[in-house]
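Handoff note, outgoing to incoming analyst
You'll be picking up this chain. Sequence as last confirmed:
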Amino acid sequence: MSERTGAHLKRRHAELLVALDDERHLGRAAERLHMSQPAASKALAQLEEQVGYALFERGTQGTLPTNAGMVMIRHARHSLGAAQRVAAELRAAEERGASLLRLGTLPSAAPRLAPQLIAHLLGLAPRLEVKLVEGALGELMDRLARDELDIVLGRLGSRLLPADCEVIRLHEEPILVVARPGHPLAASQALEAVELARWPWVLPLEATMMRERLDEAFVHAGSRPPDSSIQSNSLLATLALLAQDDRLAALPQAIARYCERQGSVAVLPLRLDANFGAIGAVVNRNTAGMPVVQAAMAWLRGLPENTNQAAPGPGA
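Most recent structure output, in case you need it:
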């Protein structure tokens, strides 16, 4: 196999590899690409002959990639992501004279960090086009690795990050306890963890970092962790449940303060010794040389460590 096979992967071969990986069925992959199944089979055979390895095997669970196939699929996704980036930039430049930033955000960065970054960049380049995608960490990191995103903002977590990226750590994100406006505890000057544990809750899902950090904080404060029959990883559902009765919930500070400003929650005067995790940015090194990405990185690096910290509430 030529050492430059991946670099010269034809677009139709790249699309076929990705479709086969997604569909795990040659017929469905061919249909997705508007090809006949014999044509798809022939294209796959040509590619396997070119690289010198079998790329897929048919089994009871469908058409599955071999180890060599997984390598080629990764190159195919990277190649298609880069091609999509070039096409989008060309359209923006030719049709509107604009540059393009593809920004991913986790919910923890969506209320404050992402809008602030976008506002700063638009101040520098009013014709900038921004494609903002919210998602889970794993999904966004996969898209970053495929060159479909330039920057991802949010909690960094413990997931192994893509090799071709740079990490900018910003700050630790505290966890705050919230309730509906007008909740009996909202007017308190100071609260103890033991008291809050007795109230009904909407808790984070078990085995999540948020739940583990919350439980640890209550134990550290000398209280049993809260217990509840309701667990949720949906912000909208949690807010709706809080509005119905006197339940409590825990949210990352940026989200809690944003919801407080919107009038949908009251932040209770209890400062837990708990952090949601490190908030930061993961930058795609393949596009880090672009002026708009460099401007974003400069702004992020210039943020003070407490940029996302709001003033503590009463008794906090």
